[in-house]
Amino acid sequence: MNQQTTPAVSVRHLTKQFGDALAVNDLSFEVAAGQIYGLLGANGAGKTTTLAMLLNLITPTSGEISILGEQYPAGRERILSRVNFSSTYVSLPLRLTVWENLRVFAALYGIKRPKQRIHEMVERFELTYALKTRVGELSSGQKTRVYLAKALLNDPEVLFLDEPTASLDPDMADKTRTLLLQAQQERGMTVLITSHNMAEMEQLCNRLLFIDKGKRLMEGTVVEIREHFGQDSLEDVFLHVARGESL
Ligand SMILES: Nc1ncnc2c1ncn2[C@@H]1O[C@H](COP(=O)(O)OP(=O)(O)OP(=O)(O)O)[C@@H](O)[C@H]1O
Ligand SMILES: [Mg+2]
């Protein structure tokens, strides 16, 4: 990696306290531009909270975040115009149709030729038939596809994905992974992703941060993490850690 390149995402001593509970506890990590970076950890480990802070949806208790060389709050608009996300943390307006939702986001992102771009995205996620359906009437997998179409609408430089394939059928999950790898290769898109599908994380991620109760447990490539815990797969690493066998 070129040492002089600014990381796409840099997090230093990030902490989030909810009341007495430390949801995120002194996390530091860097994501190089063009990498797919995985946040891994058990339910409640702090993955969604971390992504929500990276998107400035919630304010950190302490710590520093830098995205594309900019910081919140001063760089908020510039950051948010160059990134996008798919997260259940933020719900889409359920009474608007798929088309209306995407039109609103296209306008917010100032997308040129919005109709054409929306059609490209809905075709990609096989949603064209649902354009006139209200989002509230879609199945959870269909909703996820709308989130993904919205997430790619502005051709983001950095994409934050919180369990993007959790409710997708195997065919659409596979197509989504292919699409992310393509966007990485063709446009150098940086992706931060969470998933409980360990095979998916192995397939996609250049590096992973394994979080346990808000804290860094291990950071590295899939191979490094497997070797560190002496396991054959990420799934085995997860079970090994979750069942306390590494302690
Ligand atoms: N708004 C909130 N208020 C209080 N506690 C919260 C809030 N959001 C999250 N938490 C707590 O912070 C911790 C981390 O939650 P978070 O949603 O970040 O976990 P996660 O790693 O995304 O888990 P999952 O895999 O289940 O999605 C949990 O203990 C959760 O209860
Ligand atoms: Mg979560």
Written description of the protein model:
It is a single chain. The protein is globular, with a radius of gyration of 18 Å. It has one domain: 3-Layer(aba) Sandwich (Rossmann fold), CATH 3.40.50. Strands 5-6-7-3-8-9 form a 6-stranded mixed beta sheet, sandwiched between helices. A 3-stranded antiparallel beta sheet has the order 2-1-4, covered by helices on one side. The model has no long low-confidence stretch (mean pLDDT 94). The chain is built from 9 helices and 9 strands. Strand 1 and strand 2 form a beta hairpin. With 247 residues, it is an alpha/beta fold. Magnesium ion (MG) binds next to helix 1.
Write the layout of secondary structure elements.
Blueprint: E1 9-18, E2 21-31, E3 36-40, H1 47-54, E4 62-67, H2 76-82, E5 83-86, H3 98-108, H4 114-124, H5 140-152, E6 158-162, H6 170-187, E7 190-194, H7 198-204, E8 207-212, E9 215-220, H8 222-229, H9 234-242
Parallel strand pairs: 3-7, 3-8, 5-6, 6-7
Antiparallel strand pairs: 1-2, 1-4, 8-9
The structure holds adenosine-5'-triphosphate and magnesium ion.
